[in-house]
Design brief:
Layout (H helix, E strand, L loop, with lengths): L2 H33 L3 H6 L1 H43 L2 H29 L6 H35 L4
Helix pairs in contact: 1-3, 1-4, 1-5, 3-5, 4-5
Length: 164
């Protein structure tokens, strides 16, 4: 296996962790809307409210762990292996992959909004699915900026080296 393929595999694994956490968050929210709609809170009292609250907290933690593993894993790779990374992986490929990860997260949220509206008839619940995507977009933008700075630094270092 070439080094470029090894780097891309690690990059894909980290993105898979991010997407898994995001999908678990959205799937749990959809199941909560199917099984325990907010209209049931007034009929059953506080029990449904507390179940929804704690389930939401649990999946938020899962999604947050996935997001942090994705971001800090990529930052660690940039710091530890920045010179190799910038030399082996083309900037265009990593930039497209980072943008693609954000686009897949948006598409996933859109799919769950459609499922929610079809299955539950939810009105105004799109924010529940798009809210965690804002953090994904912010982290992807920060990672993209760090990658850009890493490539720029790699180019500057290569230019300043005296030729022998």
């Amino acid at each position: 296996m070439t080094k470029e393929r090894k780097w891309m595999r690690i990059f894909k694994i980290l993105s898979g962790i991010l997407m898994t956490g995001t999908v678990i968050y959205m799937l749990t929210y959809l199941i909560l809307d199917l099984c325990m709609p907010f209209s049931a809170i007034s009929e059953t009292g506080d029990a449904v409210f507390y179940i929804r609250f704690w389930a939401h907290q649990a999946v938020s933690i899962i999604q947050g762990v996935g997001l942090n593993l994705y971001f800090y894993g990529n930052v660690t790779l940039l710091i530890l292996f920045g010179k190799e990374w910038t030399a082996l992986l083309p900037y265009r490929k990593t930039a497209l992959f980072t943008i693609g990860t954000a686009a897949v997260a948006l598409a996933c949220a859109g799919l769950f909004v459609l499922l929610d509206r079809i299955l539950v008839g939810g009105h105004g619940t799109a924010g529940n699915y798009f809210f965690p995507i804002w953090s994904v977009l912010i982290y992807a933008a920060a990672l993209f900026a760090l990658q850009s700075l890493g490539y720029l630094a790699g180019l500057l270092i290569r230019r300043k080296r005296p030729s022998i």
